[in-house]
């Protein structure tokens, strides 16, 4: 019988994880199944336990359950502890092991375009994704990381967890950053992200964690309109999945082919 894996979330219909893991499995000749499981928020913990006790080997966890996956993990990786959230669960010797691959996924994709060492970075947004990637960004020895959020209280809460960062509200952002990372859900929600006009004038490199199945995200389009180089988060999605695949199977799949396939054929 093939080994069983899945992604749990709510909603989950949009998830590309089954397609990505199917491609990784084909590439590395693994016999596995990978399902999408829409989970009722009232029964998330029971569903996770049932999945593992019926022989499931690994779960990816997406919105809105990453903090609850953190809470039910018996063992946590260092990066999951830093992130305060878990997107990858494994089952070893009856224990649930939680990890977070979002930060390394972002670094691997962003690293194709820009080095972060010595750079001035603005991270926009202070939700789960922002928190999940700050620890990884700090490992790259940037000059400075400023976290700017619509509600400054959330940015300040992140500053308590990561004292190395600075916290601002969006309207306090000014020009001069080398790299701007959009970790708000504005692009995904189809909302306008209102930023000070000067911010993009000096043409920082722009990265949007969000991605769309067709066309540019609103943030990527805005950055392009100012002449900035800008990319969306599809590459991060593939890289965080590759790290989860490595955790479960001990083999690192080739990501460029999968990324190109998703861009060219799937969308
Ligand atoms: P959360 O709901 O936890 O946080 C949302 C954040 O976006 C908050 O900081 C919120 O600000 C801000 N925000 C939402 N709408 C607006 C707006 N119109 N203007 C300004 N700020 C806004 O979401 P996550 O952190 O989990 O996810 C953020 C994004 O990252 C999503 O688009 C998600 O799809 C993407 N993501 C991509 C991944 C990938 O692999 N590519 C992995 C993980 C996430 P406030 O606090 O003021 O409400």
Topology as H/E string?
EHEHEHEHEEHEHEHEEHEHEHH
Unreliable spans are: none
Heterogens: NADPH dihydro-nicotinamide-adenine-dinucleotide phosphate
Percent in strands: 15-25%
The chain-level structural class is alpha/beta
Distance between the termini: 31 Å
How many individual β-strands?
12
Per DSSP, the total helix count is 11
Shape: globular
Largest sheet composition: 6 strands, mixed
Rg, nearest Å: 18 Å
> How helical, in percent, are the residues?
25-40%
> Largest beta sheet: what is the strand line-up?
2-1-3-5-6-4
What's this entry about, in short?
Helices cover 39% and strands 21% of the residues. With 267 residues, the chain is of the alpha/beta class.
């Amino acid at each position: 019988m093939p080994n069983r894996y899945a992604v749990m979330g709510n909603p989950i219909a949009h998830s590309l994880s089954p397609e990505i893991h199917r491609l990784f499995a084909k590439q590395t000749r693994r016999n596995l199944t990978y399902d999408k499981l829409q989970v009722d928020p009232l029964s998330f913990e029971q569903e996770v336990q049932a999945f593992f006790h019926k022989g499931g080997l690994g779960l990816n966890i997406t919105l809105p359950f990453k903090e609850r996956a953190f809470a039910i993990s018996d063992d946590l990786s260092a990066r999951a502890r830093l992130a305060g959230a878990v997107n990858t669960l494994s089952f070893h010797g009856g224990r649930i092991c939680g990890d977070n691959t979002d930060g390394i996924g972002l670094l691997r994709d962003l690293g194709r375009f820009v080095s972060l060492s010595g750079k001035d970075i603005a991270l926009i947004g202070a939700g789960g994704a922002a928190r999940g990637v700050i620890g990884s960004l700090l490992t790259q020895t940037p000059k400075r990381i400023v976290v700017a959020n619509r509600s400054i209280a959330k940015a300040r809460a992140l500053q308590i967890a990561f004292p190395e960062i600075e916290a601002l509200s969006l309207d306090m952002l000014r020009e001069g950053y080398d790299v701007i990372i959009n970790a708000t859900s504005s692009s995904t929600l189809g909302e306008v992200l209102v930023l000070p006009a000067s911010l993009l004038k000096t043409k920082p490199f722009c990265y949007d964690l969000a991605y769309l199945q067709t066309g540019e995200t609103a943030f990527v389009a805005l950055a392009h309109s100012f002449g900035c180089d800008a990319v969306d988060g599809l590459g991060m999605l593939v890289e965080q999945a590759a790290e989860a695949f490595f955790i479960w199977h001990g083999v690192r799949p080739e990501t460029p082919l999968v990324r190109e396939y998703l861009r060219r054929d799937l969308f």
